[in-house]
Write a structure and sequence with these properties.
Chains A, B: This is Quinol monooxygenase YgiN. Chains A, B: InterPro entries: ABM_dom (IPR007138), AI-2_Isomerase_LsrG (IPR050744), Dimeric_a/b-barrel (IPR011008). Chains A, B: GO terms for molecular function: monooxygenase activity. Chains A, B: Keywords: Monooxygenase, Oxidoreductase. Two copies of one chain form a homodimer. Chain A has 96 residues and is α+β, with helices and mostly antiparallel strands. Chain A has one domain: Alpha-Beta Plaits, CATH 3.30.70. Chain A contains three helices and four strands; from the N terminus they run βαββααβ. The two termini of chain A are 16 Å apart. The interface between A and B is medium-sized, with 25 and 24 residues.
């Protein structure tokens, strides 16, 4: 299992413009056969800080997601309104 | 609902020392009546980067967690081995 946190930082004046793009990205990604979970959150202290929390079976599934039609179409439209580069954390479950 | 990401950064030489402290923190926190989920992950690119992904009904529940016996006992023991301050993101679900 691969847990992912992806963080986007959008300029405040464009938050309303990216909102429908995020909604479509979430909806279409959840339809991917290999998507185990794909949830989007917004920082309570920063309305332009969008945080995806994702679960994929493995790295190959994440790569398929990143090459999908919806991802390659929507993410560049979102990124036009970034105030800084997105960040990504790929994680394993803590083994104890 | 309150989603939380808490990130700890532990000095590499102390990762094995903090591991049982994290295991106890996860086990005891999951027994809190108000804890909806409390999962711990490790960055694939940084074995000292520990990431909690949490779900609480509200801020009051998180405050009870932070005042609990296990939290106030274990977190200072973990933090002795930090290489930088922990970070916290408090989030709402994206409304679409």
């Amino acid at each position: 299992m691969l847990k992912v946190i992806a963080q986007d930082f959008i300029r405040p004046e464009f938050v309303e413009i990216v909102r429908p793009l995020y909604a479509e990205l979430v909806e279409t990604t959840r339809q991917e056969p290999l998507c185990l979970s794909y949830d989007l959150f917004v920082d309570q202290n920063d309305p332009g800080h969008f945080v995806f929390i994702e679960l994929w079976p493995d790295r190959a599934a994440l790569d398929i997601h990143c090459a999908s039609e919806h991802f390659t179409r929507l993410v560049p439209l979102i990124n036009k309104h970034q105030r800084q580069d997105a960040t990504f954390i790929l994680m394993d479950a803590f083994a104890g």
